[in-house]
From TrEMBL:
It comes from the Bacteria. Keywords: Aminopeptidase, Hydrolase, Manganese, Protease. The lineage of its organism: Bacteria, Pseudomonadati, Pseudomonadota, Alphaproteobacteria, Sphingomonadales. The keyword Transmembrane does not apply. InterPro entries: Leucine_aapep/pepB, Macro_dom-like, Peptidase_M17_C, Peptidase_M17_N_1. It comes from Novosphingobium soli. This is M17 family metallopeptidase.
């Protein structure tokens, strides 16, 4: 991931191109304040202050930018992102106010993934100035966390397997002196049997593992973050069609979110005892692949009948959630690219949110709305538990009905979280099928900022 620290800098009066942000309500007043040549240039552009529209006008001995926004008094994260993508290399300053949250999109709008290009496009940075330098570090850390998710998800499975996810966890271990523990091999079969069963067919090259990090003062509230790390999903013996595998490099998107959120927590020294769990596997096909109809034992002692080998993510998360519960956390948050049903229900932009407690759900929804990372709550409806019944085991991993697929998957996970623990589950897409300002096509963080700002609001005042 390229270093974006220079993209937002303190305003010390350096020379910069002016950016005027104008909404439709303020357009007439803005026009009246312009000189005749400037007004003529604006008219030539047919500028009407629509969101993401911009025009170049003369100013003094140079030029300035006039950009349309939905509301000049309440900027969004993305309202200046198109400028960051399209304007020439240089330094820019908003006139008449600070960029505020728009500085986040200014950074993420300049993200590129060019790891595999022989001749990457070489463009200099577009720098935005702010008179609020104290906000730069936190804002940049948040943008870098989002771009970390993008980098990890965009990387093909051959270069982003279980070992590479372990390497990312090692980076956090070294950077923040976190404790790390990785379970693999025969011990994995004993301690995390469902992780082993799902990942064993991938062989030594992509051997399964459970990756755990612990960080922070043990006296602080314990928080667990869990991420689904299926680095490629063939569907197993219930094999996907070729078209269904095209995006399966992103099936470790939950792990990417968990690692990025952990980085934010550690970098901000949030007063929590953090436990990060990433079950990392490839769901492959070979002679020892687990089969439809198999009964798997789990770390929690719950027996699971396999109704579909392509419902593997919930299996590895079951072992991870059971392990997280054993330490008695106050809160567990998991991220997973879990179901197509969630995408049918809420589309690609909204992660489906499930939570045991209304207050936690409300806090996550509010944080997402306030920080341009909206989520949508779906139900943990008790009546749907019957869809997971098995005649010969405690539970089936695939619902018996075609209904409520996202809810039944969440209810499966709920069985592995100990009673009384505050738990929230994000069924996220981790992918953007079409580009939007500040959000290029490809891997993306959906639910990350909502979770991060909820954690800040919940724990930042509890230090000491």
């Amino acid at each position: 991931m390229s270093d974006k620290n220079a993209l937002v800098q303190p305003d010390r009066g350096q020379k910069a191109v002016s950016i005027h942000l104008v909404d439709k309500d303020g357009l007439d007043k803005f026009r009246k304040g312009l000189a005749v040549p400037q007004r003529a240039a604006l008219e030539a552009h047919r500028f009407d202050a629509s969101a993401y529209e911009y025009a170049i006008i003369p100013e003094d001995d140079g030029w300035a930018v006039v950009a349309g926004v939905a509301d000049a008094a309440a900027l969004s994260s993305w309202c200046m992102a198109k400028l960051a993508e399209k304007l020439p290399t240089g330094t820019y300053r908003r006139v008449g106010g600070e960029p505020g949250p728009a500085a986040f999109g200014w950074i993420t709008g300049q993200y590129t993934f060019d790891r595999y290009k022989a001749e990457p496009e070489e463009e200099g940075p577009r720098v935005l100035l702010t008179a609020e330098p104290a906000a730069i570090e936190a804002l940049t850390a948040e943008a870098e966390a989002v771009m970390l998710v993008r980098d990890l998800v965009n990387t093909p499975a051959e270069d982003m397997g279980p070992a590479q996810l372990e390497a990312e966890a090692e980076n956090l271990h070294r950077a923040f002196r976190a404790e790390i523990r990785v379970t693999r091999g025969d011990v994995l079969e004993r301690d995390f049997p469902m992780v082993h069963a799902v990942g064993r067919a991938a062989g030594r090259a992509h051997a399964p593992r459970m990756i755990e990090l612990e960080w922070g003062d043990p006296r602080h509230p314990r928080v667990a973050i869990v991420g689904k790390g299926v680095c490629f999903d063939s569907g197993g013996l219930d094999v996907k069609p070729g078209s269904g595998m095209l995006l399966m490099k992103k099936d470790m998107g939950g792990a990417a979110h968990a690692l990025a959120l952990a980085r934010l927590v550690m970098a901000a020294a949030l007063p929590v005892r953090l436990h990060v769990l990433v079950p990392a596997v490839e769901n492959a096909i070979s002679g020892n692949a687990f089969r439809p109809g198999d009964i798997l034992r789990s770390r929690a002692g719950i027996s699971v009948e396999i109704g579909n080998t392509d419902a593997e993510g919930r299996l590895i998360l079951g072992d991870a959630l059971a392990r997280a519960s054993e330490a008695g956390p106050e809160l567990v948050i998991d991220f997973a690219t879990l179901t197509g049903a969630a995408r049918v229900a809420v589309g690609p932009d909204l992660p489906a949110l499930f939570a045991r407690y209304d207050a936690t759900a409300a806090a996550l929804l509010t944080a997402g709305a306030e920080h341009d990372d909206p989520c949508w709550r779906l139900p943990l409806h008790e009546g749907y538990r019957e869809y997971l019944k098995s005649d010969i085991a405690d539970i089936n991993n695939a619902g018996s009905s075609g209904f409520a697929g996202a809810s039944t998957a969440a209810l499966f996970l709920d069985r592995f979280v100990a009673d009384g623990i505050d738990w929230a589950h994000f069924d996220t897409f981790a992918w953007r099928p079409a580009a939007k300002p500040g959000r290029p096509k490809g891997g993306d963080a959906l639910g990350l900022r909502a979770a991060w700002h909820m954690l800040q609001a919940r724990y930042a005042a509890k230090d000491g």
